[in-house]
Prior knowledge:
By secondary structure, this protein is of the alpha/beta class. It has a single domain (about 1-265), classed as P-loop containing nucleotide triphosphate hydrolases (Rossmann fold, 3-Layer(aba) Sandwich), CATH 3.40.50.300. The chain has ten helices and ten strands. A six-stranded mixed β-sheet has the order 6-7-8-3-9-10, sandwiched between helices. The protein is globular. Bound molecules: adenosine-5'-diphosphate and magnesium ion (MG). Magnesium ion binds near residues 40, 169 and 201.
Amino acid sequence: MLSVDALTKSFGSKRAVDTVGFTVDKPMMIGVIGRSGAGKSTLLRMINRLSDATSGSIRFEGEEITTLKGAKRRAWQSRCAMIFQQFNLVPRMDVVSNVLHGTLNRRSTLATMFNLYPQADIHKSIDILDRLGIAEQAAKRAEALSGGQQQRVAIARALMQDPQMILADEPIASLDPMNAQIVMEALRRIYEEDGRMVITNLHTLDTARRYCDRVIGMRDGRIVFDGTPEQLTTGVARDIYGAGADFSEAATSTEIETLNTQTAQRPVPA
Length: 270
Ligand SMILES: Nc1ncnc2c1ncn2[C@@H]1O[C@H](COP(=O)(O)OP(=O)(O)O)[C@@H](O)[C@H]1O
Ligand SMILES: [Mg+2]
């Protein structure tokens, strides 16, 4: 389905992503972990074509993605919607209009200029908001919502494109634990119920373990781990976060305990 091969991104002499390769055969929920600067965002941005690869290949259902141009590149971007830590909504615009922005790629400039949205799209946006539990916020300005609600609006906007894949770049990094859980559960449901692939960058092991089927660990631009949450042992975590790491960047004290006793068990997602 998705096949990444020797993917590299250089900034000057620095390789932000260094000969990265992995394949995904069927939709699943993948967590990409690693400390700050490991290359997680750069990897997702290359998959979405927000950023061009320096070398290497990304194939999706047989099609080479790295070389797509113009309309084909935009079409690809609507098949793999991106979600960001800072939500990237238009703050003063109402929630529904923000969600309808997810259809921008397929609307004419004229329709966009005059804010003409087809009725069907408006209904669809309300249905999606309803599914995410925030339909009652539809008429409010985005800026009036809590962070967790705003991130759900961003997810709704992504779903408006009916994407095959959702790429989320630290979607819960700005949220409190309660909202983080709501957003991760929403992403998990989008995978389980819709069969959309989800690749999400996460700062902490804990979240990856709890919600993901597969975890990719990056360090200095390279993949140093690729396996199931169960395979993520203390030694592996050290590889990812660096020798002698106290996991302070990565883990809560409970996680460190779990790692240290190596009895880590993945909780069953609610
Ligand atoms: N636009 C850029 N110009 C120069 N260096 C960059 C740029 N984007 C990222 N980098 C560098 O690439 C490395 C990986 O960054 P990034 O992908 O943002 O890591 P992560 O998301 O894991 O924190 C870092 O060393 C970062 O400083
Ligand atoms: Mg990042």
